[in-house]
Specification:
Length: 391
């Protein structure tokens, strides 16, 4: 490992301290280096707190003069009414930092190279990591939201060895054991919202909480075209004021639909109307737009089979995490239904694939094939910030 990679790796370790707490901001880490030695470290701990660069500069005090700064993300360079911290570029310049090493350019259109330009303008050297896949994946939700202007979609399921997410009778408690479910709850705590289909609510009456880990519980979302959600379900009773129900009123909608809608709203539930797809269910693209407009930048889709299959079929997903348990269920609820694929070579492929061992179970974790390329090709950066392939 070269010395730059060593310091960059440390920035990501520091950035991870803000996991699940920085949204809608990214997770960022920074280290200040002098004479080949780290003299100060910083991270963005939670939304609204000091940025990582500012935290490292504060920790270094007057020692920051003449130091090199490594940061996982391009330093911010703008002010706006909703921005809670001043531009880091101003602090870096005022502290007398000599050189800034950047893991990944900031895809926020308000930055995207302007941070680099601001530093260069005053003679600070700036270089960009050439191996930056790890940085793009580390802030997968922030990067996707910034570049594609839609929520990051993370599919998650727990399946048996033979690909079932529930037994034939619909029971799925539990397929994965508590150690794997704890990882699942950590995924929940990292996202803004968590979605299930109405089939899952009727079968499981889920809580969709993060009770097995520390961290926030994302907003629950239920795809429920004709408002079948029971008023006595746990989500309505316990999470009513956070719950979003995505309905698709049909042309022959009954009085009962409006009656249920009214009762849900009385309990604080937000009922939103999605466009119908060709089968009368929620059109996923329009549903994502509705959620995005509610401030939801990342969505964990937990199932069931019908909803997972729709997201896969429409290629509207970015990441898949599948827990595989050492159990066979035979006939049961399939994790993924028909995708219209008839040739093996046309199967949905993945990139950035990782298999993790959790006790006796495996976790498959990967991105949709082409995800990174889609982000990179849709990302526009201030041209002048890039000179000879580095910025
Ligand atoms: N092991 C695991 O990880 C998990 C297991 N499960 C299990 O899965 C089973 C439930 O799966 P399933 O019956 O398929 O139900 P789902 O939870 O997938 O719900 C499907 C229903 O959602 C509604 N819906 C609205 N829009 C869409 C859309 N665009 N695409 C798909 N569905 C949409 C439809 O009902 P409508 O037309 O009325 O709107 C549809 O019938 C349960 O047995 C549960 O225990 C569930 C989650 C995770
Ligand atoms: N059965 C199953 C999962 N099921 C998911 O968890 C939901 C129940 O959530 P909660 O009520 O918070 O416990 C259920 O409806 C489905 O979305 N998850 C897993 O990690 N492993 C499992 O074996
Ligand atoms: Zn900043």
């Amino acid at each position: 490992m070269n010395i730059d990679s060593f310091f960059f790796e440390r920035t990501l370790e520091l950035a991870a301290r803000g996991r699940g707490r920085t949204s809608p901001n990214p997770m960022v880490g920074a280290v200040l280096v002098k004479d080949g030695r780290i003299i100060a470290e910083g991270c963005h701990r939670r939304h609204g707190d000091l940025h990582a660069e500012a935290a490292a500069l504060e920790a270094a005090g007057s020692e920051a003069g003449g130091a090199e700064l490594y940061c996982s993300l391009e330093p911010c360079s703008y002010r706006s009414p909703e921005k809670l911290q001043p531009p880091c570029t101003e602090r870096i310049i005022a502290a007398g930092v000599r050189h800034v090493h950047i893991g990944q350019p900031d895809p926020n259109p308000k930055v995207s190279g302007r941070g680099v330009l601001a530093l260069r303008e005053v003679g600070i050297g700036v270089s960009l990591s050439e191996e930056n896949e790890a940085f793009w994946r580390f802030n997968d939700a922030f990067n996707t939201r910034m570049v594609l202007s839609r929520p990051f979609v993370h599919l998650k399921c727990a399946m048996s060895l033979d690909g079932r997410i529930a037994a034939a009778g619909g029971d799925s408690r539990w397929i994965s054991d508590e150690s794997a479910r704890r990882v699942g709850h950590r995924f929940r705590s990292e996202r803004d919202a968590i979605a299930v289909g109405i089939g899952t609510v009727l079968a499981d009456d889920p809580e969709l909480s993060t009770r097995l880990v520390e961290g926030h519980s994302p907003r629950p979302v239920v795809f429920d075209s004709s408002l079948k959600i029971p008023l006595e379900s746990r989500l309505v009773r316990e999470r009513g004021d956070e719950l979003i129900v995505l309905a698709v009123p049909s042309e022959d909608v009954t009085e009962n639909f409006f009656d249920v809608k009214h009762r849900l709203e009385q309990r604080g539930v937000r009922v939103l109307y999605a466009e119908p797809d060709s089968t009368g269910k929620a059109d996923l693209s329009s549903a994502l737009d509705l959620l995005y407009a509610q401030g939801i930048g990342s969505l964990l889709v937990e199932g069931g089979s019908g909803l997972l299959t729709s997201f896969l079929k429409h290629r509207l997903y970015d990441r898949l995490s599948a827990f595989v348990a050492p159990v066979l269920l035979g006939s049961g609820v399939e994790a993924v239904g028909d995708l219209g694929i008839t040739r093996a070579g046309d199967g949905l492929a993945f990139e950035g694939v990782n298999w993790f061992r959790i006790g006796d179970q495996q976790l498959f974790d990967a991105y949709r094939s082409g995800w990174l390329e889609e982000l990179r090709s849709n990302f526009t950066v201030q041209e002048a910030a890039y000179v000879h392939g580095t910025c």
